[in-house]
Specification:
Chain lengths: 581, 581
């Protein structure tokens, strides 16, 4: 095995092409070992093995600097830079993240997990190099649909201003997570079809020099191309055509399913892990499908993550023109949703909490200033959501709930979620965002409102006394358990409240609580800073009410264990009880 | 005068070309009347007179829908749609905003003031039209440097997916606010130079059909072009070459100065309004220029608004490679700043508070997760800042201060501002944002710290008792006046605190205040929701301390009078005193 002797990039420089090809095969073995047992980004990594080998063969990392976009395709890079054990030794899987991570290696420059950032970050590395009069190549690597993101296009447009060494490696596998969307991908196809010779060329139109490599999984061809551009004195795009999922037949055949994949049996490609049961993705898809069939003006929108609300390929086809995947273009999505709502359509745009960060200004300016009645579905907005530092869903409450005019709702059960969604689609007065539940599909027998136009009216679900618990969204169930515990321990049942509205306070109810209550406890599934509970604390600031806010500390967590984080933040009912009583 | 009889767009349809040209001249008289007396966007409006006339001549607004980007070029549109008095009758200047405004007219579809939004918003109008099976043209108008913004590029990339009527009018005057930056503008030049025939074409590379109009200020030529594309069944870009400032010699000669201009004497072009005295723009420029001369790794960055920190054309030349205008591309700017800082440079990126909204995700992901020591200068972040609904600077505290790892500073004087800026540039541990003072250049005799690495340490500036006033940034001076008033009225001097750090609380000091104080008053120059004071309220939530938070209500203000807003929010010292004592 060659891989056994590769401990840093310099160790591959003595290998010849044949040996490098064997190395590629060994690397795929390592990839499959980790991916099949742990899950991860299958297609992006399998497709980028040869290119990564060729990059490290031609360039001299870390003096030459690679910046990976999204960085979910960096596994081979990790193997070649001293981290191969995390792929071959099952006991060491946990030693690395699924993204580049400067904490792991001097060959990684940024923690990256969102798309479309590599060109701009790399521009910065190059500019600092030039300011300091240093040398070395800077290479931004971008692909998997990231090109359509505004940040990437801004970066590519700016890059030509650098007037010094700068290489953009466009890893074109003709796919985003799902299929590509947007006109520029037609140009990429024209470039592939013409072997890069098509005179209308997006990269040249953005001011860059350009070369094309048709065999993006051929190490020899890649080495030749990279040698050509190494030490270039100007910005150049190197467009390579790779095969997503290369080397694993199921992944080559069904690229969307295998972009990211749960653990699987390599022999059959079948999942070895099954969730089963109800999930909000499929349920949301079914609900929206019914709405769309009943009303041609309802339209479902996503930005390259259709499956987050259950829209698999068959469902997308079924929805037809009433389903829009804008590609990686969240800014466009929210502004377009505002325009659809302005002209009488009923748009529902869904993406992950972490990706709504990419469209703050459009939520504020395009949507909320104009008060257009679009619906935003905020997915994985929870400590129970995604656990990588770059994909956390615990910041959307401070980010979104303080934007004027927005009605941000937090359902406390499955029934309430769909009632809110239905109301939001049918009303025409407010931009509405809904925090999709993320703590399992929890049903309720309690009646839920069908009309949420009584903005900021909280609901008392259990009338008690002395203590009031205001438990928001996914943490409503913690509130129930806490209420039970207080009742059990003190003999007095507290009042339990489902506030439902994140964006405002029910002043009338909070005023009434002063009668018969001396303690208010708030619970929210997100960071406390700038969040929901602080608004309650402000309301009672000058009163005698004692207010205790429970939620998460403001920090970037990474690959955390949910119960540990809950415990560290005193979020178990027993801890809260011990704190206060 | 033809303009006298134009009360709606249909009134121009009977005019012939010669009459339309006379109308254009009359419109310029109206523009000059308003602009010279009130100030406003001179160049964009003067350059777009003929195109607006031709649009309304060919298309049928409001069935055909125009969406103006930034919308600062919409004055002629306002004149032709029933609002001409606001240009010819000085007493009616206040009747309209400087941007499109659905509240004013059925011919305006959105409140717009940020750049790069028109294509996406218009895509939404077109999609809703198609869903409902309606007809009519949708025309997105974009220019003045807006093309480089990520949202615009996302929108243009998506537009080709519409497969129905959609027109993008590219108003190319070869300028942004200052000169254009970015590779795509080289392509626009190549297209102008080749009369649109250059085979490498950004718009075609993005999947659009395309035509070119060389004389963008020739009504007849424009009418012919618009007739060609009217009722098109597919997306098409109409690229017109206009002259920014057309018809007013000083504005044609110095396009940057006349993009937006203060009131002026039309005969000479000289300002009739002079601020005079010190201002933070010039002072910041001088300071950064000294830093850059002393250290080649310091680099000043802006996104198309260089003059917000005093970088006029001569200063930009003087700074050379150490000054970067990325164009309208705030996302790229922040990510690139992170990259520069990662590689040992010392970047300072400045823009307006309202425009930082365009780069939330980059602040969080590219910068703060990576903890790179870049400096962000947040301009006009204040109730004293810009007053249009689309440019408000009162939301950045909730938006930015709740992002982990960021150190957000609020100086309370000129000396403190520059001390913070100096510290931020030289330190290498934190991403730092500084709220530039906006309430005039206020000097202090008090010593200010030079080292701010003691994160979240507040400063007691006057030790008193009973009441503590925590007065943040620009509202520190209100805190001083309130302290004086309380002393005068009660005979007991309160404690006055300059907190300096927006992003955290000084728990030790707040704990100590419990000794000898029963009331804490917070003051902040921004909305209360998600802001600074609520964190103090949370800290004291379960204690006996009475906390009063003062700041602004969460709402979208528009063209407001500062003293009125302060009064409505109980922000005068006398009101606060009356509320509490």
């Amino acid at each position: 095995m060659y891989i056994e002797n590769i401990n840093s990039p310099k160790d591959i420089k003595a290998l010849d092409t044949e040996q490098l090809n064997i190395l590629a095969s060994e690397i795929r073995t390592g990839l499959m070992n980790r991916l099949s047992k742990r899950g991860g980004h299958v297609g992006p990594n399998l497709g980028f093995v040869e290119a990564t080998i060729a990059l490290h063969y031609v360039f001299d990392s870390p003096k030459d600097k690679f910046v990976f976009d999204v960085s979910h395709q960096c596994y081979t890079h990790k193997m070649l830079t001293g981290r191969k054990e995390a792929f071959f030794d099952d006991g060491q899987f946990g030693g690395i993240s699924g993204y580049t991570n400067p904490g792991e290696s001097e060959h990684d420059f940024f923690n990256v997990g969102h798309t479309s950032t590599s060109v701009s970050l790399a521009c910065g590395l190059a500019k600092a190099r030039d300011l300091k009069g240093e040398s070395g190549n800077v290479i931004a690597i971008i692909g998997d649909g990231s090109l359509s993101g505004g940040e990437a296009l801004e970066g590519i447009d700016f890059a030509s201003e650098l007037e010094s060494n700068f290489i953009i490696l466009v890893n074109d596998n003709d796919m985003s997570i799902a299929e590509n969307h947007g006109g520029l991908y037609k140009n990429l196809k024209a470039l592939r079809d013409s072997e890069g010779k098509c005179s209308c060329n997006l990269f040249r139109a953005m001011g860059l020099d350009y070369i094309y490599v048709s065999e993006g999984n051929d190490i020899a061809e890649l080495i030749e191309a990279f040698r050509k551009v190494k030490d270039t004195d100007h910005p150049i795009a190197v467009h390579i055509n790779t095969l997503k999922g290369k080397g694993y037949e199921p992944a080559e055949a069904n690229k969307e399913d295998w972009h990211w994949h749960m653990p699987f049996d390599p022999a059959t490609g079948k999942d070895t892990f099954r969730d089963g049961g109800e999930n909000y993705g499929d349920m949301t898809c079914d609900f929206l499908m019914k709405k769309m069939k009943a009303d041609k003006s309802v339209v479902t929108m996503v930005a390259a993550v259709p499956v987050c609300i259950g829209f698999t390929e068959d469902k997308r086809k079924e929805a037809g023109k009433q389903f829009i995947d804008v590609g990686i273009a969240e800014e466009h999505a929210v502004a377009m949703a505002s325009g659809i709502a302005r002209n009488g359509g009923k748009p529902v745009f869904a993406t992950h909490s972490s990706f709504f960060q990419r469209t703050y200004d459009q939520i504020s300016q395009d949507l909320c200033i104009n008060s257009n009645p679009a619906t935003l579905l905020v997915n994985t907005a929870s400590v129970y959501g995604m656990h990588d530092i770059t994909h956390l869903g615990i910041y959307d409450i401070p980010m979104m709930s303080n934007i004027p005019n927005l009605v941000y709702l937090a359902p406390a059960s499955c029934e309430e979620y769909f009632a809110m969604l239905d109301w939001s689609i049918e009303q025409d007065s407010y931009p509405v965002a809904i925090r999709m539940p993320c703590n399992g599909v929890i049903h309720t027998d309690m009646p839920v409102d069908t009309d949420y136009s009584g903005i900021n009216k909280y609901r008392i679900t259990r009338q008690g006394r002395d203590t009031a618990i205001i438990a928001l969204g996914d943490f409503y169930q913690i509130g129930e358990k806490l209420a039970d515990l207080i009742t059990e321990k003190t003999g007095t049942a507290p009042t339990l409240i489902n506030p439902r509205y994140i964006t405002g306070i029910d002043e009338e109810m909070l005023e009434q609580l002063k009668d018969g209550h001396s303690v208010v406890i708030t619970l929210e599934d997100g960071i406390l800073n700038g969040g929901f509970g602080e608004k309650i604390a402000r309301f009672y600031g000058a009163s005698d009410m004692k207010v205790y806010n429970y939620g998460l500390k403001k920090e970037f967590l990474d690959r955390y264990i949910v119960p540990e984080v809950l415990k560290a933040n005193h979020l178990t009912p027993q801890q809260i009880y011990n704190d206060i009583f």
